[in-house]
Protein 1
Amino acid sequence: MAESTDPVSVSPVADPSAVQSYLKDLHERITAALEALDSGRFRRDSWQRPEGGGGESRVLTEGSIFERAGVSFSHVRGEQMPPSASNLRPEIAGAAFEAMGISLVFHPRSPYAPTTHCNVRFLVATPKSGPPVWWFGGGFDLTPYYPFDEDVLHWHRTARAACEPFGAEVYAKYKQWCDRYFFLPHRNETRGVGGLFFDDLNEGGFARCFALTRSVGDHFLPAFMPIAERRSREPWGERERNFQLYRRGRYVEFNLLYDRGTLFGLQSRGRTESILMSMPPLARWDYDWRPPAGSPEARLYEEFLHPRDFLAELDRGQ
Amino acid sequence: MAESTDPVSVSPVADPSAVQSYLKDLHERITAALEALDSGRFRRDSWQRPEGGGGESRVLTEGSIFERAGVSFSHVRGEQMPPSASNLRPEIAGAAFEAMGISLVFHPRSPYAPTTHCNVRFLVATPKSGPPVWWFGGGFDLTPYYPFDEDVLHWHRTARAACEPFGAEVYAKYKQWCDRYFFLPHRNETRGVGGLFFDDLNEGGFARCFALTRSVGDHFLPAFMPIAERRSREPWGERERNFQLYRRGRYVEFNLLYDRGTLFGLQSRGRTESILMSMPPLARWDYDWRPPAGSPEARLYEEFLHPRDFLAELDRGQ
């Protein structure tokens, strides 16, 4: 039987247990990579959700490189899809659902090292009438405080490499989706320099969608770790620390005002401490603060906090 | 002509300019009271909104008593009532509107002095069909870190006094509304020890509603200032500071996840810096932190962060 191309039907070869195995392995690999770089160790908390399912949250606190790094695996079931999950799919509002994923946010100590977020997820919804619906979602994005062109290039080249086997247009599409998603309308700023974002992916059948999602998950560490490693060696002072704390306030604003994952988690009565692991350990707000003209802080706003085709603009044969 | 008791019609004596005068005078009185206590001075920013109207934001930063104190007057107009303003009034969704109010949040420096919020507002909506609708809203609430029974008593006694001339049931009703409104479901905690909250007030005609709203506005300083003054004299250390910063994280969570005023402001494209003046200057998040058993920090959670009838329970003829 050929794979269905109907976007709201389940491919006959959908294999949730293969997705779960992949996600658990990715969880291990990410944990191991950070522990190889940082003197800190992850605390591991397994939890159950009364409504069904559970997860394991791993948090590294006050490490040598990471002020906080959290990476969670979760696999939950529910009787009613929360509203934040089904905006784009009115036909499954209120359906029973199963959701599994890895979600991480790393807040490095050094203001020269960027904050990063990565998520890969798989959902199956079973409406009261009609067939089940599955889809993948995910991506990764980078939020530098003091951006370096070579880091942004490396980040987006790696993102492009993750997408390349799946079609020439995939990187551009997911890069633009990321720019639109990680945007703060009340600040008229992107959260950072973007990366990849995709959702509602079930085009082309389960095997292709799973392979694409794995490729995104597998490219996260090669995209991020070299940047974290080299920037954590740069010396920094109070000025850079204050700017980092100030910009972390924007991270909080995005997560609590707009982030679908955070709102989905809180609305579906997920484990609050695991969901809010994404919060920075410390953040500041200054009233009406503006970066001094010509400063490195002003460069962040002027050159990086709006959508740009970094690969076309910065990649001059380096 | 008798005042209408139809909750969706405008009283013939509604007088927006009297409300505006009152609000501007209250703005002055609050500013003066803080400057009399604190060595700091308010920065005053007047602003215009492209869609109509404007306001004046006043912010005191790094004062001797207040780490940040912000109090804004605004008077704005818009062609389309934002969704967050009209949940309770589907008949005015999308109506043209006029909104004026005072809103303040004070973040004292001392962890022994509570954070506080007060708001009084007046709205008029003009639906495309049907008569205009006006209503008042407002209240004040207190968010202590290390609560003192005598402060909580003084706070609620003053709140009760503000309501007493308007009926025996008013304090209880607005106190309970406050407990319900300033609640964080994902934490199963109230924001603090409550106070008063009311909205959609137009019962009994304009004169009564305006008088009640004035009484709430006028009782804020007598409720808060004695507490701020005496608690700012208590010595404190790093432990208390860390707990204050941690609990300020909850303040951020409430404001960005649930607060109707914040969401209304951001959705209606208000001045972001004035709306987010309510953010604490510095806040922290600690993963899965719990107060030590028997500690003063545990007492906050156990005795204060759920709805209680403080006047009945604490007021033993003091």
Note: The CA atoms of residues 46 and 56 of chain A lie 4 Å apart.
Protein 2
Amino acid sequence: MTARIDFNCDMGESFGAYKMGQDEEIIKYITSANVACGFHAGDPNWMRRTVKLAEENGVALGAHASFPDLSGFGRRNMAVAPDEAKNDIIYQMGALTAFTSAKKLQHVKPHGAMYNMAVRDEALARAICEAILEVDPGIILVALTGTQWVELARDMGLRVAREAFADRAVNADGTLVPRSKPGSVIEEVDEVARRSIKMVTEGKVTAITGEEISLAADTLCLHSDTPNSIHLASYIRSALEAEGVQIVPVGQIV
Amino acid sequence: MTARIDFNCDMGESFGAYKMGQDEEIIKYITSANVACGFHAGDPNWMRRTVKLAEENGVALGAHASFPDLSGFGRRNMAVAPDEAKNDIIYQMGALTAFTSAKKLQHVKPHGAMYNMAVRDEALARAICEAILEVDPGIILVALTGTQWVELARDMGLRVAREAFADRAVNADGTLVPRSKPGSVIEEVDEVARRSIKMVTEGKVTAITGEEISLAADTLCLHSDTPNSIHLASYIRSALEAEGVQIVPVGQIV
Amino acid sequence: MTARIDFNCDMGESFGAYKMGQDEEIIKYITSANVACGFHAGDPNWMRRTVKLAEENGVALGAHASFPDLSGFGRRNMAVAPDEAKNDIIYQMGALTAFTSAKKLQHVKPHGAMYNMAVRDEALARAICEAILEVDPGIILVALTGTQWVELARDMGLRVAREAFADRAVNADGTLVPRSKPGSVIEEVDEVARRSIKMVTEGKVTAITGEEISLAADTLCLHSDTPNSIHLASYIRSALEAEGVQIVPVGQIV
Amino acid sequence: MTARIDFNCDMGESFGAYKMGQDEEIIKYITSANVACGFHAGDPNWMRRTVKLAEENGVALGAHASFPDLSGFGRRNMAVAPDEAKNDIIYQMGALTAFTSAKKLQHVKPHGAMYNMAVRDEALARAICEAILEVDPGIILVALTGTQWVELARDMGLRVAREAFADRAVNADGTLVPRSKPGSVIEEVDEVARRSIKMVTEGKVTAITGEEISLAADTLCLHSDTPNSIHLASYIRSALEAEGVQIVPVGQIV
């Protein structure tokens, strides 16, 4: 069987007169777009443009749902009650859906603080899953690989895409090394490519401790916000394709 | 043929800790709910509650789309470009749709300043129609009866519900007498009921000048924000039913 | 020496078309107003009205500073960095100051989640103090009596008003019994009055465990959001005055 | 007497994670900073940074007050009632003042749509003036030269700085040629410099019709948002200084 992987990237993070990201460039290398829906970034005008850009490039669409925190870019933990988070997510999913030609989303990926909190907070993780099930049980949840959140979502009957970060060091238990620690971000392009290939073809990664551990990935998270990120995306994509890996939207994988 | 009319009312205008309207009471008398979508009022939590309330009462659902003006309750004219207004409306329609059981709206009624501006501003009126056509051409536009906006929408292929205000005086040309003028609001319940019956059964109304003029109505706008509004709704409903008029969602009329 | 106490109350929590609180009534019984500054509630128009109402009634003015969380009414914990919280507070203090006749505030009282977090989070507590020192070292901080926050503020050179809640049960260590526990809120007016008198004249209160503990209070927090709250305010005020206690703005006490 | 002129520039227009403008560069060439106050751009954190940057560079501070329209960057006309606009401005003035070391502003310059509307809308123009008078009658209003707004402000007792745009063509009556017309923006640096010198030393400018007209200027508006804008600022400053013109904060001029 041919190995397959999805490349996802956060997009549509501009807001009003504010431009962010290099969407027109990164779109050429990815297969799934996580579109900001106005709660941490994005607005109706940028959502339209982003959806159009993705559709023209054959890139699948998902909602990048966030806590309501525009001034903090959704990066600040908030004690939003699970039922409120659920409603916030449904709202954002619906808003994005209306801009798509198919009136349908491929996936939902919680943004920033909501994503990080869901890894540890079961009630929030459950609320996110309930939001998806309520809107459309066919929509895929993108969640951090190796977490209870993934298990919970599967138990609840969701399609789940396990996400990995090829440029982030992992601990021996598979969790991400926090950005505050040295060595947490892998800068060297060749090394990121090698890790990507190993993740996708062997389901393994070398932890920061030196051990080789299992790490299953259905989708890799790419970025578009650094000068180097477009080059990195292009490089990893070529490296994986050279190994015979197919880069396809996650809806064709899970 | 039996005369039929829809009763619509603005709902879900609470926001966070702020409660507004008597939704639980007025819901018993209306057939279509215009639900605030977070731009002038409402939020994801109130949208869920309002949708549930309407569905439990067999009341059809529509988006009460607004300019982005929470602090002004959507009542202040804004020079939003037509393309931006279109995107704002699509966003709000989608957000509300996601909360409905049917994942479908019956109608869209622009709120406040957007509604009033659309009566005179053809580019805005057209943008509103385009938003609906893009999301779902089966969705009905609620627009002020007797206006070019109604004609435009029909020319564009939309289903249109012509809205009348039973408690508002009209000029000889069918336009509303501005609230700033004496006699603009009809307070006497019996008189409002008589006008409603005449509008619905004869398609006529007596203008403030004394003339009897034609005025076609598919839906009457009720309110829930005054102490007397629930009584008025109940009274008009009974009066119309006594005349053999059926009160049904506007989706069954146009 | 005559015992003195301040009565403070949250005010100006209306927003745009949304009315909240019974400001015109409660203002007659209090001596210090905590005015919402637009982050959890309030807006420039309501701030003007509230400042005018307070000044006409001889009530001292303070900023009720909050995290930026309008949809959550500032009641949700947020991981706002201390430096960001400091700037948020300075912004709100300045905005309110500009509406006052004296261009000067008496006090600052953090609202909701920010208040509760500051009791336990020293970095946040310090940031709140720094905000006040930076704007005007003469401004008083209102903080929960018996906490390290009070000590920290004093160490930093601030004037501090220790706040107590006459209608809330306290544990043996002086902390508030959480609202989720039975008996946390004292409903009986006579009992609240008795506790108020004891706090103010003896500096003591009976804990929920039955012990009598020390509890120093410079200001008592009253409410205006329940049907009974105006009656309670009036009753407590009369009861304290009957004991010879003077009710004065906290600026005359600390 | 030595000719003097102020250079003003909009600053602090970043918001949260969004960076806008080249504040660190343009600050070297200007004498007055118009700081965004959170209504169209800016936030408490950027306000602190911007105030610090200006103070370190000896640049005078003013509030760039706007309608509440973050998603439209304050560029959309809004039918805000004059009393509401007045309160919005007071709020923004106060918020900015609290970040300044002197707890005092030099000036207020309405932003975008509010500025443009004030040129024609006397009630709004008056409300802007009242806001300044209420906060501090010593604060200078920056208003478009040659307008009734300038006259009104003077009649109300305000200090007024007449603003001109060296890179914008003017009609024979002194009004700006709209950006939509060809030739409205003067791109050639030498030409902008020549026009600046003539405005400042002779109080004259050549209209688009070829006539030489009178045009008094106390302050010139510079930009920092185009690649060329820093060069232009530096060039004009040098050109004026070479003519013996002093570039000083407008508080030393009017």
Note: Residues 4-252 of chain B form a domain with the TIM Barrel fold (CATH 3.20.20.370).
Protein 3
Amino acid sequence: MNDMTPPAHAPLSPGELEAALRAVGAERYHNLHPFHRRLHGGQCTRGQVQAWALNRYYYQSRIPAKDAALISRLPTAELRREWRRRLLDHDGDAPGTGGIERWLKLAEGVGLDRATVESTEAILPGTRFAVDAYVTFVRENSVLEAIASSLTEMFSPGIISERVSGMLKHYDFITETTLAYFTPRLTQAPRDVDFALGYVLQHARSVEQQAAVLAALRFKCDVLWSQLDALDYAYVSPGNIPPGAFVP
Amino acid sequence: MNDMTPPAHAPLSPGELEAALRAVGAERYHNLHPFHRRLHGGQCTRGQVQAWALNRYYYQSRIPAKDAALISRLPTAELRREWRRRLLDHDGDAPGTGGIERWLKLAEGVGLDRATVESTEAILPGTRFAVDAYVTFVRENSVLEAIASSLTEMFSPGIISERVSGMLKHYDFITETTLAYFTPRLTQAPRDVDFALGYVLQHARSVEQQAAVLAALRFKCDVLWSQLDALDYAYVSPGNIPPGAFVP
């Protein structure tokens, strides 16, 4: 963890801490990354959109592993029930339902083969390492830091609406059905944030805890940002696709 | 792990397995990466050489964590003694000795501040995630796979001599003293390989074990390659340095 040195001041009020968390997003959330500007602005080729969908699937597929790791560390049934909704959102309650299934439909919608995507064999190593770092972070750090690392969802409604409208406008191979993954996220993410932000503002009381939750959110922004670095490097300039990775 | 499906053939002989391991290096070792060609060929700016030294320090600094994790899993004193030499190589036996210390001298030699390097605060997230993935791999996979993942050292004498001669020739700010890290590696790496390769050839007998050690070596090549992807992306084209990372 970076930046864990406690600053020499009194703890922030809950309102000040929320503002500090939002400031992390304003500086580091991946809506600011050049690859997202390219993706949403219509400058991607179909192959680049495929590479994005293929790699992002690995992130989607590991979110329940991250959430289950956190649930296994939560001390009360009340907290575990609250977090269990996230498993339901991603894994569904029957075959063919849930966020991972909807992401597979998105990947098929942009022309990828479902089995290739599910195998995750052709993703970039940079994607795998960043996503695995997130799961490990939630396993190995405090419950407070693990919950704080989920708070990038505070910033996601904005990027989702920008992404959906931008991609529908600019790519004739993308339809509303393809992007159906994102519709429930617009209600799930704010509901999840209500709980997680409330928990963090209530439990991060000391200067040290507040520094830790801010560092956790910076870490999570790095996880998202780094995945786009890997995509932008491999698929925008020619000659940079690493050995073994997807070739559009 | 990728590519774990056992191929439908008999196990390889030790000689065939060694050839298959060497073929992984011929395709995926990071001497082939564009950033290394740039670094060794004199096309890097001093700032790019600094970024390389700063980020590579994190790899160096975590190698003893990786080796200690493996030692903690080895079953006999004989095996642990063998592997313990690596701790000595990297951590030394007195202050101011060992590979990590020599890497710090390299970093200082190219103009970096020692405290900044040791803090690792300014490294690229892609570096951190790749290196941490290596430590986690050694903790979580079989001892056989963990040992196999060290076998990129089979390929390192070639890259070291190319690097040292290329950097001395092309950069007037680099001296033999700066690159003193690499001199003992030329004898340590072959000695380490003798043991690790012998262990792998002896213990990877089944088709499944052979597929696993080949996948472990591919994984390790990805760890090295991905670090150069992150450097090449962030420091070669303008505008790509992620928030919070070193700015030359």
Note: The first helix of chain B runs from residue 14 to 28.
Protein 4
Amino acid sequence: MAPETGYVVGADIGGTSLRLALAGMDGNVLAKWKVSTAGIRDPQVVVRLIHEGVEDLLKQNFLPLSVLRAVAAGAPGVTDVDAGIVIATSYLMGWRNVPLRALLEARLGVPVAIENDVNTAAIAEGKIGAAKGIRDFVFLAVGTGIGAGIVLNGRLFHGMNWSAGEIGYMLVPGTSVSPVKTGEPGALESLVGGEGIKAQWQSLWSANRTKLPKDLVATQIFDHALTGEPLARTVLRKSAETLAYAIYNLAVVLNCPLFVLGGTVGMHPALWEATQEVLAHRDKRVQPKLLRSTLGPDAQVNGAIHLAIDTAVSRALSS
Amino acid sequence: MAPETGYVVGADIGGTSLRLALAGMDGNVLAKWKVSTAGIRDPQVVVRLIHEGVEDLLKQNFLPLSVLRAVAAGAPGVTDVDAGIVIATSYLMGWRNVPLRALLEARLGVPVAIENDVNTAAIAEGKIGAAKGIRDFVFLAVGTGIGAGIVLNGRLFHGMNWSAGEIGYMLVPGTSVSPVKTGEPGALESLVGGEGIKAQWQSLWSANRTKLPKDLVATQIFDHALTGEPLARTVLRKSAETLAYAIYNLAVVLNCPLFVLGGTVGMHPALWEATQEVLAHRDKRVQPKLLRSTLGPDAQVNGAIHLAIDTAVSRALSS
């Protein structure tokens, strides 16, 4: 097949949904596909769903299977990209050493690449998003937990055991220093992950202090902070300080000039603005630029598309 | 000249002394040379001293200038390795944008390489020291301040503006969160650099609490901690906790399996042991190995020798 012909599929495997997109070799998305993964833990079932999605996407576009050149999938856990194995996901899915690449290649009959889902999002932000053309940057996914996709010299940095950027465990002023128990969230995400922000709110909440309900999620709390509600502003300030300290530490260690905030919580404009404010007053020498993701919830699938394109091209070159 | 013939000189420029060593192309040191730099700030004077040292070393060994193939120098500040410029050193020397490589090449007439001094120490630990053969590791220099030399995929990681590893500014539980003023030490080194440890001691000291004098340096305090003196043990514990949190953060971000402690304070066995103890109880998943430098105060000059050898070899290949 000529380099520019054919199609790829990018997939994002999440705890609540599986999202796929079909694209040309130029990265332009032709169609999307989505299915719930609530309650699904078995990797074989996920592989079967991806297969169904790929067939659906091709059929919708009146394309034969033979035009499919490669597939890439982002997985929500530590992923050995070279071996094609998902080493571990969080307790929700509970995967351990799943040979996802081999399972998908056997099922789909095309070259497959796998990657951690925060890293696929970082790929997309670097190719077509907020970090387009930037050599060194960090993509921060702030959702239920917190993870970082680190791009150095234009390439993803994976670390010795594929778990670089697990910054949910970072220790900064204000975080707990208690030893980490297996399966429990890390110190940083316990404060500024979605669940941590909810927990902050609930621990400060009393009927005397606010008219708002006790049961709010992080983005609702930040919405109220934007309207000036005092308790919500307190939680926002604490969250922004803690996140700013983590970004500052990353900037100091990696000498990294750009951070891109993504994830449902990280994308919130109130958190972005307040975090920027803290960073601006910390240290004149260390002033990393802080941008919001331009791709939002599409970042992961988009990154998987670009990874699939690279896979198709490198297979074509080596054959 | 054949690849294996000839000699190189490695130099370490410090605030108190300038150290040089002459070596063969196998890295074996033939002779050392040292001169005080107390009170010397002028880069031209440092260049002249290096020239004198190089001539002395060759003369001592009955070698003509023609056998010298390259020189490398470590400088105590942010160093642009590509441009050969020392961008900034601490207020003690006060260098700003000194074209050290060009100055030395003009004076010595041989190829010269320059590098940050913590990075030269990291080079040496990776070539012949505690991290020999390890692909990813961090060398931590704990002296008056704290700096890190980060080696990833077997190469020094410099960052976007040559200041990766400036971890003296890291924020961990227990450090101040006050904004950093220009020229002042960072939050982490304010607690566990040599001066910070002294300050901890002095702030806790009272004649009722200890029979030891108020005026002790960090290594003396740690010596007393080893004998069980309670106040010294308190300072040791706090210092070790803070250092362990910083190492933990680096391990989490970089997924780095090995840390080498160097510098006069960092080499102290009491700090090493106590820091290891804190790390061992923090997190089962994140258990970086912690070793003491095997090269000690020779690490910087030794790393410069290896950098000079690489410079000589690469010039020979490109000419």
Note: Residues 230-254 of chain A form the longest helix (25 residues).
